[in-house]
Please model this.
Amino acid sequence: MPQTLTQIKTSLSAFGLRPKHRLGQNFLHDHNKLRAVVQAADIQPGQTVLEVGAGTGTLSELLLEAGANLVAVEVDRDLEALLQQRLSVYSPRATLLIADALAGKHQLNPLVTQAVRGMINNATEHTPHTPPSFKLVANLPYNIASPLLANLATQGADGVAMSDAVVMVQREVADRLCAAPGGKAYGPLGILLQAICHVETVATVSAECFWPKPKVGSAVVRLKRRTPPMTDNTDALRHTLQRLFSQRRKKISTTLGRDQKLPEGVDPSDRPQRLSVEQLVAISRCLKQA
Model:
């Protein structure tokens, strides 16, 4: 049974804590939405799951009850004792790491990726024929959602691919992740992730489902890795998107130069926000060859 709002408040109070606005702490307490996240993640017993932003451990406990081998990451050191108390009963299937998941905008914290790799290695001793991978399942802090998803999708964790992600993010971020060509939300983040994963919104979440109540709504987004991805050179795609979308209203021939060879079917007078993910990937290959 997930923690109730009363239990969340009581647990924090017992350790002399309150939500920290500077860390974007908004604790999800709606049981239906919590169960929707776990259901969408389709956890199989023994799978390695990374959770970033463990909070008071509400989602952590549901993931462990579903059979996950969990690496729970929380940046707030004041929550360490509370989380240790709640997760210690699930040892050794639960590892708690008090750390920032990112070492920089484009770099994951090596401690996090090493912890995921370690959990996978321990699990594969018992399931040696299962391809190594992990899932990200989390109520992500708003301030790290975009860079974290981009880095995990492109880098994985210590050489291991992220197979799936089910994350609760700010509604604006969800719109960017799932945007189609032509819309205002269509841009580099969504294009990069859509080139690597199938992306869809599976639920919307009102502000009333959180405590304290945020000023914006949220959504649950599911990412499932493509087999194979549209590109094996995400650096080239990143560079292309940065270059084109820095002048998104200009013709691509103006941005890239009139002599730049373009893929078949791409009109030099097109604007980048009108191009499909497939077309933008094809352009990144042309630029690489140039």
Observations:
- The CA atoms of residues 28 and 210 lie 4 Å apart.
